[in-house]
Each structure stands twice: as C-alpha cells, then as structure tokens.
Amino acid sequence: MIGSWFIFIYMLLVIIIYGGMLILSLFQIRKSYQLDEVEPYEDLLQSEYTKPVSILVPAYNESAGIYGSIRSLLSIEYPEYEIIIINDGSTDDTLEKLIERFELKKVNRVIRKQLETKQINGIYQSKLYPNLIVLDKENGGKADALNAGINCSRYPYFCSLDGDSIIERNAFLKVLKPIIESNGEVIASGGSVRIANGCDIQDGHLVQTGLSNRPLVVMQVIEYLRAFLTGRVGLSQNNLLLIVSGAFGVFSKRWVVEAGGYAHTVGEDMELVVRLHRLVKEKKEDKKIVYVPDPVCWTEAPESMKYLRRQRKRWHRGLFDSLWKHRKMMFNPKYGSIGLFSMPYFFFIEFLGPLIELIGYILLVISIILGNVYLEYAILFFLLSLIYGSIYSMSSVLLEEWSMERYPRVKHFAILFFLSLTETLWYRPLTVLWRVEGMFEIIRGKQGWGEMTRKGVSK
Amino acid sequence: MVEISLILLFILFLSMLFLLLSLFLYLMVKKHLNNQFQQKVDEYKDAYRIKVFRYLQTGDPDELGNVKEDEELLKALVELLSDYSQLLTGPEIQMRISYFANQHLMNYLEKQLVQRRWSLRMNALYMIEDFYLVNLSEILHRTYNQKITTVSEKAQILKTLAKFDDKRVGEYIKYVDQNISDFTLLSIFLILEEEKLDKLVEEFQQLSTRLQCLLIETIEKRQLIKHHQFLLMLIENEDEEVKIRALKAIANTGIPIEPELIKDLLQSSSWTTRMMATKVVGMQRLETCKPQLITLLSDREYSVRAEAAKAILRFKDGLAILTNVTKESTDIFAKDMAIEWLEKASGGYSY
Predict the structure, then answer these.
(1) What is the C-alpha separation between A263 and A272, in angstroms, rounded?
(2) Residues on chain A touching B186 (C-beta within 8 angstroms)
(3) Contact call for residues A248 and A191 (beta carbons, < 8 A)
(4) Does the model's pTM come out above 0.90?
(5) For A412, phi and psi rounded to 5 degrees?
(6) Does A329 have pLDDT greater than 70?
(7) Rounded distance, CA B215 to CA B228, Å?
C-alpha cells in the first residue's frame, strides 16, 4: 500500500516537472514561428567573419553509405568549412572507396597532438575538394576517432556527425548563429534531431517531410518531438542542458580540448557535455551550452523491435555512465544549478523513472488480478500513466504544429496526434521494459555497442 | 481517500483530453485553411512571375493590375519581389520594388511592427530593409528607442538605418547596446557611409575598446588606407587587443611600415603580438627582419611557427630557406612546420 502511494506521488511530481518544462518551451518556440527561413542567416552566409567549422565524420565499416553522406556535406550552405572523415581502422573497403571516389592523395600535415589517440597511419586530401580530408588510423572506437579528428582540425569550432545523418542545407548556419552572435559566451550548440524514415530524401537532401507507415517508427517520431521540443528547450533556457545529441552538435574546440576531449564510454556525446559544464563551473566562467529547437538533422530510426530494444538499452547505459562518472556533481552546490537540478533530474527522473514505472505496471497487473479494493489503485495508476505518457506526447505533437509545422499534410498531423494517444497502451511499457533491461545490464557490467543494420534512407 | 483522488484525477484527465482534442480540431482546421491559402499563393506566384519581372524591367505598374483586394495575391507579389530583390540589383530595380512596397505594403508593415509575436516583427523589419522603405525610418527610430524592443530587433533596425544612411546612426553606434554581437556590429560598420566612419575615427578615444577594435577591423576590410597614420600610431597602443588588430590591419592593407617599428614586436612576450608582427613581416616582405623569422620557426607557440613558415614562403628565396631548415635545423618543431609548408607550396592546391 505504502509502495503504491510512493509511486503515485513520484508520478505526480514528474507530471508537474514535465508540465513546467512544457510551459517554458511553449512560448520560447512559438516566438520564432513563421520566421523567415533565409533572412536571419544572410549576413552569416555572406560574411567572412562567420567562424569556420571542422566537420568530423567518424567512419567504421561504412562503405555502403559514406559516399552519399559526404556528398550531401559538400553542398551545405556555409562560407568556410572542412570535412574530416576519420577511418577508424575499418575492415571493409571504406578507405579504398573514399580514395577512388574523391581522388584522395596522401599529404603531410602537421597534427597538433592535443589529445592522446591511437596511431594515425596516413592523412589524405581530395584533389576534387581541397576541404575534404581523410584520416586513416588504427581502430580505437568512436571517441578515439573523434579525438583524432579534433587534433587534425584547424578551425576553432567543430561538429561531430554520424555517417548516416542527413543534414539540412542551412543546418550549420542555424546552429552556429547563437555561437557567432554571443561574442564567445556560447561554447556549444546543438540542433534538433528528427527521424528520417518516411521522408523523401534524394542525394542526401531532404526533399519532403513525410511519415513512415509503421506505428513503431511514428511513435519514435513522437518521442523525439517530446524530448526535443519540451525537455531540451526548457533546460536550455536555463543553461541546464546536459545533452547535445551525438547526431548534431557544434563545440568550441578550445573548450573541448581543455576538458580532455571525448572519453571512451557508451554515451560519449552526453558525457562530454557534462564535462564541459563541469569545467565551466570549476573555472567559474560565464559560458553557455545552448540548444536550437529548429530541426536541422534527420536520422534513421530502427524499424524493428529488435534494434530499437538494443538502442534503448544502450542509451540507458550511456546515461548512467555519464551520471556515474560525474557523480561528484550531484547535489554539490559548487556546481550551481547543474549540480542541484540537472544531475538529480537526469538521475531520479530520466534514469530511475523506468524502474518505478515498471513497478507500477506490475502492481497494475496484480491489482487487476486481485480485484475488489485494489481495482481502484489500478485505475488510479492507469490514469496517472495516461497523463504521464499519452497526454504529454499529444501536447508535444500539438506544440510542434502550433510552433513549427514541419509536417505539411493534415493527414500526418492527425496520425501523429491519434497515435500519441495510444502511447501508454503499448509503446511506453515497451520502452520502460527495455530501459530497465539496460539497468540490469549495468549491474551485470555489460560493455559494447550493439550494432544496427542500416538500409539507408537516401534514394 | 483513494476514491476522492480517483475522481479528481479522472476529471483532470478528461478535461485535459477535452482541451487537447479541441486544440487539435482547431489546429487541424487552421492547417487546412493555411494549406489552401498557401496553394492559392503558389498559383498566383506561378501566374505572376513573368509579370513581376516585366514590371521590374519597365517600371509600369499596370503590368501587375489591381492588387489591393486580394490577400493571396498581395502575399504572392511580396514573395516574388523578395525573391527578385535577391537576384536583381541596380538602383532602378530597387526603386521599383520600393515603389510597389510604398503603394501596397505600408499599412500592413506598420501593423506587423507592433505584433505581439517576435517573428512577425522581425519579418517586417527584414522586409523594410529589403524593399528599402526609407519612409518608415521614423517608426524605426521610435521602435529602436523603446525599452521593450529586443536585441535582435535593435540590431536589425541599426543595420537598416545604416543602409538608409540615416543621420542618427553614428550616435546610436557610440552608445550601442552591449548585447548586440561583434559580428552584427561589424556587418553594420561594413555598410556604413565613409563620412560616418571618419567621424568615429575622430572620436576614437571616446569609444569602448570593443568598438575601437571593430573600427580598426573595418578600416582593414574596407581598405581605407587614408587612415594609415592612425593605424601606425595604434601599434604603440597600451591595449594588447587594439595593438594586435592594428598590426593585422597593417598586414592586410599593405600600409608601408618601418622595419624598426616591427623588430621589437617580434620579440614581444605575448604570442599573439609575435604572430601578428610575423604576419606583417611576411606580407610586406621586410628583408631586414628575415633572420628573426627563422628563429620564430622554433617558437613555443604553434600558431607563431605556422605564421613564420608562411611568411618565409612569401620571400623570393623562401623555398630555399625552408628546405634548408628541413635539412639543418635541430629543432623538430621547426622541421615539421617547414615540411608541411613546403608541401603546401608544391602541392598546387593550397588550403
């Protein structure tokens, strides 16, 4: 009995916190609804003062998709940038393919060894595109590859990118705008990530936003909307953001190098952001990490239960890794709002939430079986989880429509809305279960990535 | 207890659901209407594309017919003009765009400027700039001086006023909002009339360091070599940042400088000063400073070494000097740097 009250109170509390973040986002996003797509970025595009960016693309056995993604990167709208592909000891023909397609030639280039990495075997430059560099190195994992890329990069800002992401043409302008216009106060900036499945993508460019006809994928679309539109905007406003997605984020190189670069962990992107926050607080500087709500990057979502389960388990382990590494910050007033709010939020709500929810679901089943008095508890829990899951997801879909309108067809909007109503009935319990599985894996000490086969989203 | 909470929660849930459903219906209908509106606008755009082009070529307003009553048509024309204003340039075209906007858009824009939503106000400001609506300057001044105006609006207004060559811009810049970024200010400086810049140079001492640095950069970018004495004076400035910017401006504008003035700076304790002084030596090919450049190839700072190598290459015998370093130098850093730059020089596709 006490247990179930504990769960109810916990859920109520979470509902209130989510509600607060939703309201914070509401006006922030709506503010820029229908803002001209081109005008705000015109100066950035024309000025030679726009800060140049190094785009780092770690590649491990990506022979199939790498050409397409690099091609799309070569046509982004940005005045000055270099693309550094880091071949992390691929065992397939990734390097050979790159050499052939882009007419690469071996060059000598001094690498500033600011971060320790595995050995570099060679540096290549394209004859066709002088701003395309390929680093060939011994296998050392994604973090190691990114660190090698940072060493080799020559611009003050860098962006890490997954080989399979589709970037909108003006993505860099949008994400760098806050950095450029902050006079150095903003040291990292992340953009919204959306799901590419179902969209019309040609030659690595998004032609038309669409929706997959698989409910499992559409549910992920809704989940992303919810995470990016409500959670992150609210957190970013108060400089509490602990995640700049691995799919799209731009960082100040100086700060990342000082923080020690990427660490070898499951969720290296989140861990880096936590570390940057920590460094900023320890140096007592007034620096910010911000988040741009505009969708700028489209990524392929898993279409089957099997790979989705793996992904969620991995994400949860990654979350734990970052929190555990920086547990010192938890409730530590020295780290200000990050220590007193962000860390506890991510631990008690994002990390422990699934466990408590799962216990709730189990109690729900037991109560139904026992019947009688317990039935009321069952209904109570069910109602709470409806608000917790479905109501908030429906609100996010409405928020998207009210403030962004990235899905032009009425039909898609309706599908998103009604499917989000069913979240609590099937999708939520599944993800809860997977995340709890992830927690068990942490206890068992499982390492490694879990692979995902990609069929490619580009035509 | 449980029953009460149950009932409360149930009511809460139902009312939330009801609220969301009504919002959904509202947004759905709105979306449908918007889509229809946009479709009509697109149709008009297709139909009027050539007519607008002809109007801009000939200046005959009859080409466009009667616009006033039709909201979709007006929007289509605005979008077309906006597109053309990016593509076609020239005073006549600008005048015609401006004429059209003056005829049809004044009321609309005035209303948009006082909208509650920030994005609508910004869009209106962008349009005023693109369509060169000098007639709206007074409203811009009023908005600029209002307390509630946001930084991004202020920045856009300042830029527009600079473009219109407004009298008060210089004063505004002197007391500019601290939150307007360097980047924005520089874009404004780059389009500011030369007379106004000269005035700011005269008042240099009264400006904040930030504005001083931006002003020097503007002189450099716009190649205003008539200010060369001014720049030479600044390399003795106490402020490190001002000094570096002045050196950079001298390097990039090619203003002649006495080698004696530079020699001390090559040994400065600040690496940024050393780097910029090195750049000046390279750009101006100051023979007497050449030996010092070779020493700087072993500087403890990477950027200074790189700049030194680059500077050496600008001399006639630069290739020979660097080749010599690769053979004879005992310093690995100097050697590495020389090898990299030799390769760049011979590669043909520099980067």
Answers:
(1) 7
(2) 47, 49
(3) yes
(4) no
(5) -65, -40
(6) yes
(7) 13
The answer to whether B220 touches A84, Cβ cutoff 8 Å, is: no
Is B24 inside any structural domain? no
Quick one: pLDDT at residue A232? 73
Among A51, A47, A109, smallest CA distance to A84 is for: A109
Q: Please state whether beta strands A120-126 and A200-202 pair in parallel, antiparallel, or not at all (unpaired).
A: unpaired
Tens digit of pLDDT for each residue in A16-64? 988 888 888 887 888 888 888 888 888 887 777 788 999 999 999 888 7
The ipTM is 0.88
Domain count, chain B: 1
The answer to whether A39 contacts B126, with C-beta atoms less than 8 Å apart, is yes
CB atoms inside a 10 Å sphere around CB A218: 22
Contact A297, A168 (CB under 8 A): yes
Looking at CA atoms only, how far is residue B246 from chain A in angstroms? 17
Beta A132-137 vs A120-126: how paired, if at all? antiparallel
Between CA B200 and CA B173 the distance in angstroms is: 9
CB neighbours of residue B16 within 10 Å: 17
| Residue A436 Cα, gap to closest chain B Cα (Å) | 27
Backbone angles phi, psi at A455, to 5 degrees: -100, -10
Distances in whole angstroms, Cα of residue B243 to Cα of each of B119, B180, B211, B267, B272: 40, 23, 14, 14, 10
- For residue B266, pLDDT beyond 80: yes
Cα separations in angstroms, A227 against A145, A347, A355: 28, 16, 19
Look at residue B283 and tell me if it is in a domain. yes
Furthest-apart CA atoms within chain A: distance in Å = 78
Percent of chain A with pLDDT over 90: 49
Residue A354 tokens, joined:
């699934």
CA atoms of B117 and B97, how far apart (whole Å): 26
Chain A positions in Cβ-Cβ contact with residue B123 (cut-off 8 Å): 34-36, 39
Interval A212-245: pLDDT, tens? 999 999 999 999 888 877 777 777 777 777 665 5
Name the pLDDT band for A246 (thresholds 50, 70, 90). very low
Q: Which amino acid is at A53?
A: V
- A75 C-beta neighbours (distance < 10 Å), count: 11
Nearest Cα neighbor of B52 from B111, B97, B109 is B97
Please give the average per-residue pLDDT across A290-311, as a whole number.
89
Structural domain includes residue B68: no
Q: How do residues A354-386 score in pLDDT, each as one tens digit?
A: 999 999 889 888 888 887 667 888 888 888 888
Q: Per-residue pLDDT tens for B175-205?
A: 999 889 999 999 999 999 999 999 999 999 9
Q: Rounded CA gap, B5 and B15, in Å?
A: 15
Domain hosting residue B327, numbered range: 257-351
CATH number at residue B280: 1.25.10.10
Distance of alpha carbon A318 from alpha carbon B322, whole angstroms: 49
Sheet arrangement for strand A288-299: A104-107, A120-126, A132-137, A81-88, A53-59, A157-160, A249-252, A186-195, A288-299, A166-167
How far apart (Å, rounded) are the C-alpha atoms in residues A271 and A443? 19
Q: Which of A27, A410, A418, A424 is most worth mutating to test chain B (most B CB atoms within 10 A of its CB)?
A: A410
* Record: contact B9-A380, CB cut-off 8 A: yes
Please indicate whether, in this complex, the C-beta atoms of A380 and B339 are within 8 angstroms of each other: no
* DSSP state letter for A300: P
Residue B328 maps to a domain = yes
Tell me the shortest Cα–Cα distance from A103 to chain B, in angstroms: 13
Checking if the pLDDT of A459 tops 70, the result is no
Mark yes or no for CB contact B186/A110 under 8 Å: no
Q: E strands, A139-185, where?
A: 157-160, 166-167
Lookup: tokens for B156: 């856009």
